[in-house]
Amino acid sequence: MFTGLVEAVGTIAARKPSPDGQGLYLAVQAPFAGELSAGESVAVNGTCLTVLPEAPEPVAGAFWVECSPTTLEITTLGGLPVGGRVNLERAVRAESRLGGHWVQGHVDTRGEVVAVTELGNARQVCIAFPARFRRLVLDKGSVAVEGVSLTVVSQGVDEAGDTAWFEVTLIPHTLAETTLNDLVPGQPVNLEFDILGKYVVSLLGPYLERLDSRPA
Hints:
Layout: E1 8-17, E2 24-29, E3 41-44, E4 47-50, E5 62-67, H1 69-74, E6 85-90, E7 109-119, E8 122-130, E9 142-145, E10 148-157, E11 163-170, H2 172-177, E12 188-193, H3 195-213
Antiparallel strand pairs: 1-2, 1-6, 2-5, 3-4, 3-6, 7-8, 7-12, 8-11, 9-10, 9-12, 10-11
């Protein structure tokens, strides 16, 4: 479990196919790499990954993780180049302050940055995502973008009903301490929606479907 408060920005130091050729090993350089133990969970751009017990090859100041085929299909991690920057957060301790929101590290889908607007020393970003997730996004609600806990400013659905969107504001601290300062239109991003909202929608799903089927 994580909070969406990025602990450090790391760098992809190496990429290596897994032995079966289906997955991917990533070496991530991080200031806390030497403190990690095998089996620990680390969120890499919002994706919960497990520290490997043995490094496929030695890389100074780095820890190794493995991305499964499912992870590569759902997230953006497969496209990370060597030298690419990533948001990192270690699992939250029970006695820690919960400054963001509950983030599982289970990415729901990829979104796409469609607009970036300067707002003085802040920045507003509009992100499109599949409309099937639209019930999980609401004004002033929480969403994790690349592992960063953010508050939804506004949201909606396009006229065709196929694509939804939301806007978030990035304050100077977020721009300085995460990779979100690098976002540009057309860039894919990992999205995880609020776990509380997902449970509510799951429980009320049949009722909501009946409402949707009513004549206008």
